[in-house]
Design brief:
It contains eleven helices and five strands, in the order ααααβααβαβααβαβα. With 270 residues, it is α/β, with parallel strands linked by helices. It folds into two domains: 91 residues, no CATH class; 149 residues, HUPs (Rossmann fold). It has a five-stranded parallel beta sheet with strand order 3-2-1-4-5, sandwiched between helices. Helix 2 runs antiparallel to helix 3, helix 8 crosses helix 10 and helix 10 packs parallel to helix 11.
């Protein structure tokens, strides 16, 4: 069931991703015009104008993403009150490129990992759990855990403090498999676990880990928006990037809630 969900989620996201879905609408509009299907042409033309216009000509993508990023404020941390640090995968780039080049490859969510390195230097006694294998349908080269291990070793992290959960492919599996890795330690470690992930991803991550029963303190990073001010208008690429990130997380929250992978549609601080 988990594998079927993973596969369907990847296929579904490919179909609804803003650039892809607009391209499909454009092809459908051209096809309808070619075969004289006027009603279909009007429908797909309207979708192109309204959906594309909302992304490119309005601040809706930024507002949708900002509402996610503002949900959990960055906390003040006290190492004495924490059980440890959990960082979610999603910050590494192509494993094939990393393996063939022999170098660490990171993407634009690299703050997930660089923040953990900084936290480790400030609180070296805390254990670290890195959760993530790969979110790709077909992995080539190094997986997320292998890339992260090499990065941490290069940056001088004490690897005796680090454990890897190297099987999960999505956020629900991050939570379930991390809880399995920690076992009773997850509940009896004497404090919450500091959860590090991208700010826009934090609501879905919190919902998943709460459902797994792990006490946590959210530590959002990797912000793409300001807390109050709009950076709109943006360039077209930037608008589509924000729209894709926001749609991915809002759809993820809804799907996780409907399928029972989380018990909260839009969790907030407690």
């Amino acid at each position: 069931m988990a594998t079927a969900f993973f596969f369907l989620s990847k296929v579904g996201w490919f179909l609804v991703k803003p650039l892809n879905s607009l391209l499909f609408c454009l092809l459908a509009w051209l096809g309808c015009r070619r075969f004289g299907w006027h009603r279909g042409a009007r429908f797909f033309g309207a979708v192109l104008l309204l959906y594309g216009g909302a992304i490119v000509l309005t601040p809706l993508p930024e507002l949708a993403l900002r509402s996610l990023e503002n949900r959990f404020p960055a906390p003040q941390v006290d190492s004495g009150a924490l059980a440890g640090i959990i960082v979610l995968g999603g910050a590494t780039d192509s494993g094939a490129v990393a393996a063939t080049r022999g170098q660490v490859a990171l993407n634009d969510s690299a703050e997930r990992l660089t923040t953990v390195v900084a936290l480790h230097r400030a609180m070296p006694a805390l254990p670290i759990v890195v959760s993530g294998f790969s979110g790709r349908l077909r992995l080539r080269g190094w997986n997320e855990a292998e890339i992260t291990q090499r990065l941490f070793e290069q940056l001088g992290v004490d690897m005796s403090k680090v454990r890897f959960e190297a099987e999960s492919r999505n956020t629900a599996e991050n939570a379930r498999l991390t809880m399995g890795l920690l076992g009773d330690e997850g509940d009896t470690a004497g404090g919450p676990w500091l959860l590090v992930t991208s700010a826009a991803h934090m609501p879905r991550a919190v919902a998943s880990f709460r459902s797994a029963g792990l006490p946590l303190l959210p530590y959002p990073v990797d912000y793409k928006t300001e807390p109050d001010n709009l950076l709109w208008p943006r360039d077209i690429g930037g608008s589509f990037g924000l729209a894709g990130a926001a749609l991915h997380e809002w759809l993820g929250l809804a799907v996780y809630y409907v399928t029972g992978r989380s018990a909260e549609l839009f969790p907030g601080p407690r």
